[in-house]
Amino acid sequence: MSATTDQDTCCSPTLAAPLATADAELLAGAFAALGDPVRLRLLSLIAAAGERCSCDLQEPLGRSQPTVSHHTKALAAAGLIVGEKRGKWTWWRVVPERLDDLRHVLDTPALASVREA
Amino acid sequence: MSATTDQDTCCSPTLAAPLATADAELLAGAFAALGDPVRLRLLSLIAAAGERCSCDLQEPLGRSQPTVSHHTKALAAAGLIVGEKRGKWTWWRVVPERLDDLRHVLDTPALASVREA
Q1: Using the beta-carbon criterion (under 8 Å), do A110 and B100 form an inter-chain contact?
Q2: Pure H helices in A1-117
Q3: pTM of the complete model beyond 0.90
Q4: Chain B residue closest to A26 (CA)?
Q5: Which parts of chain A register pLDDT below 50?
Q6: Nearest-5° angle of CA B46, CA A99, CA A26?
Q7: Shortest CA distance from A110: residue in chain B
Q8: Which of A7, A64, A77, B63 has the largest CB neighbor count within 10 A?
Q9: What are the CA-CA distances from residue A116 to residues A18, A111, B4, B9, B100 (Å)?
């Protein structure tokens, strides 16, 4: 009920301790959504633009509208992007908190040596 | 040929710019390997221990030796862990540089607002 709960990342999981099964299941779904090169490029196009119209994704990806739509749906289902319908098109943006959760879970004590190298 | 090339992360991709197709393909393979809750828990068990014997993974995961072996092979093929054979067992540790590449690619200008929140 704390006002800071939503943004408080003190207790989100990292690789410094074994992951609980429930956390692993939630996170695995998001990583699986990133496990496709077209979806990764799609995410990067949206992230780099800040916000991007679904009408402006086919050409840079070289994919059809149904394919682009399939991939945006998968990223949205994983909580990585959110869309806002405006007329005929949807405008997509990334969910930075969700990306931060994934970055956080990849943190491990072993990374300290890389950062200090 | 620079001595610092291997550890130089100045030019590894991030979501601040659209990903090149070749980068996306390499990275997607690693994310796909993380897209399974058992593999994520396996990675966390190895990362938390620093180094962990394959003989000490079955019990905490509640999986058979062939299943554990299948998952360690997938993580190793994705470059996320490396193993050293000692007698009958393999000892696994994470590859921090590879985890750092994945963390790096999830970086986006939008994350700055989360960090500052």
Answers
A1: no
A2: 21-33, 37-49, 58-61, 65-77, 96-105, 111-116
A3: no
A4: B37
A5: 1-9
A6: 60
A7: B96
A8: B63
A9: 24, 9, 13, 12, 12
